[in-house]
Specification:
Number of domains: 2
CATH class of the largest domain: Alpha Beta
CATH architecture of the largest domain: 3-Layer(aba) Sandwich
Shape: globular
Strand content: 15-25%
Number of helices: 14
Number of strands: 13
Order of helices and strands: EHEHEHEEHHEHEEHEHEHEHEHEHHH
Largest sheet: 7 strands, parallel
Mean pLDDT: 92
Strand order of the largest sheet: 3-2-1-4-5-6-7
CATH topology of the largest domain: Rossmann fold
Amino acid sequence: MRVALVHYWLVGMAGGERVLEALCRMYPQADIFTHVLDRRALSPDIAGHHIETTFINRLPGSRKQYQRYLPLMPLALEQLDLTGYDLVISSESGPAKGVITRADSLHVCYCHTPMRYLWDTWPDYMASAGALTRLGMRLLLPGLRRWDLASSFRVDHFVANSRTVARRIRKHWRREAAVVYPPVNIAAFTARERPGGEFYLCLGRLTHYKRVDLAVKACSRLNRPLVVVGKGEALKTLQAEAAPCVRFLGRQDDVAVADLLARSKALLFPGEEDFGIVPLEAAASGTPVLAYGRGGATETVCDGVTGLFFTEQSAEAVESAILEFERRERDFDPQLLRRHAESFGEERFRQEFARQVELARTAQSRPPEIQ
């Protein structure tokens, strides 16, 4: 059986790429297709595969500003030749599911989220964009949404990374989705023996919807040490807002991230995420999470046990959560956090995802009903 893995873009190792990494281990002979490729930024498990790109990869500046080419990505996907593959697994957060497959091949989409900038959070993107970009978005959004909906019917079976995302799939695409939580590489993290730490930590791509600005403002006002790991278009704005107690380390490798998680007092997670694997990596390190209590965090953080929720997306709410955590810091048991993370391990993901593929294959093999 020939397998193709289709991923939106490969320019770093975030949560979506961790799932792709697990799929690469499940299907070691699979070929990978993507819009943009920076092989140096990938793990050996991904970089070691045969990888083909769409024509987007050859356009000027595509490795750093790939999202400017979003309007061309539907065309690019439809030009990929996947006729030689029996199983196609698309990994969707950016455009990936819109590939065209053989009538007798099976297309399973693992969806991290329907594209947020087309649906849920487009007003936020409009607010942060320049005048010319806003005009372009207003002209292009209706067509991109129509294509996004139409291409969802090219998928035989949807698997969502959380109940939150399954609801979005039902809302925007009118499709049902099974839920299989992403895998956490538990072995990469070591749980501390007792509560405590040196600093607060923010970890991930520095984009507007992650709301790292709330953590920066809160720690600056409280004069609490904060370490920010990651790169993105919001970096310069965040640096301008930060007090001296905030340090920006840029992108760090996996070993450095594991060390930072183990040494931090708590992970600050102020964005509304689709799932968010970082809180589970924190739990695997015995580190509590202070999270905005909406979206995927409600499925990965146990309020009062593995972390604390704040109910408003504001710097003031983050400040209150930090102060409450500091009063209760000794209540969080690192070993209990570790056991919580272990229930999201990779073996569980492999078994559950393989079962979904088999269910989809069985459904596909049934003869159509004659009306």
